[in-house]
Amino acid sequence: MVDKLPNEILHEILRYIEEDTKTLFSLLLVNRLWCENSVLTLWKNPFKLENNYKILLPLLSCYYNKNNKEEPDIKYLKELNLINRSTFNYPSFIKQLEIRNMLSMIFTLAENFNLNNSSIIQIIWNMIINNSKIETLTINTKNSISSRDLHWPLKTFKSFFKITETKICFSIMKKLTFKLNLPDLSILSDLIECTNGRIKEIELEISNSKSNITYPNLDNVINLIKSQKKLEKFTYKDLSRNLSIQPIITELKDHSCTMKILNFEQRCDIDVDDLFSNLKIFYNIQELSFRNFTFEGNHELLTNIKFSQLKSLSLDGITSRNQRYLAYISEPIINLIQNHSDNLEHLNIKMTDVIMKDTFKTISLCCSNLQSFSCSTSDQNDMTFIYSIFKNNPHLTSIDLCIIFPIRNSFLTKFANEIPNTINYIAIGYSILRKENIKTFLQGLNCKKLKSFKFNWQNQKNVNISEIVKNVTKDKDWGNRCTFEECELGLANYQHTCIFKWE
């Protein structure tokens, strides 16, 4: 029966597993219909993994077979033992283009077969722009691809963006994602003519670099925003601390009717009056996020702000200039939450300069539709109100608590028992857990289907954390497989961040 599914249903199935490359490859063998649809999905974003240079070979095969194989500029491709006939027109399937990863693959291929970088880049680019309609473009200049040339992507593609075929290829593009060093912001202006004013989503991350730029040009960001007609999502993360966010927010006002998602992250001061005076006209905003800002000025404006469509609110790492008057800060924040409590589905409150007990109490009383909840607490007495939030939100599936007080097993037992059985995702931040803490917490959980658990772990001699978690949860019926997905080095050499997943 599975091999006779209608094409529309098959498309829907593959949409849910498009990130599962292993499964998609196995589906190639079912029949021709499954093969064709799986190839479409696999080739939607062929450059998402930079270490797989073999993905370039089908593209080179298409080029090689369409041209005179004896021409000097392609004769050298014979060394790659390319297939004589391509089953599909692979470049026509490409919808997402990650330039840095593509270049990394090309450099690896050229190095392995002693080929010319520039020639391969030109061939691959021509195959894409003459066959594809790119919907998502990602440019990352943060990390060097080649030790010989830090800015390969910028220098190479500035000229490519001026080609007519590139503009046609990019004419329906909907999303731009950038991770740029400060000097590379000029690439934004180079792309304006290619976007055709149709971009819906812009994600921009700006990093520090070894640059002598004292007054960076913000016009590149402003002009990119100005050139678009109907932006719906804007994510801005500035790690350079050299740009002012206020002119960007002012320019975004021209998209206030269409904007649905705004995310800002920057370690700087921002005037609350100016900020929310501009934002209050964004009537259709559904997601609003601020991270690492210091709020200054009159906080009272927050009391009167209401976005009728807001479903997600995040105030993460926010501090205030008015630290002496916690009540003065707390009341406007509480009112802001109350104003949106009916529609809020995702709430993240990690602030150090508000009275958290009062904030948690308000959330527990007025919010009943939360699906995810994140917070930080430095007082164990706050947990009474946090547990009330759990109980009063029956649709809650994800919790993320940054616990800034000493954790004992007795606390973890109580915490585990209070977590609703509907929870699928749990994260415990800041505190470092040890072997007995992990065992106590996992044993006490009553979750029906836990999918992910994230925590900070302190290495202990002769302790295998993966085996401990698997043994404790083997009878929990959370899935047939428990995977230790990630272990990142934390702030110190003895600390790791661990993520376990069940499927």
From TrEMBL:
Residues 3-47 form the F-box domain. This is F-box domain-containing protein. It comes from Glomus cerebriforme. InterPro entries: F-box-like_dom_sf, F-box_dom, LRR_dom_sf.
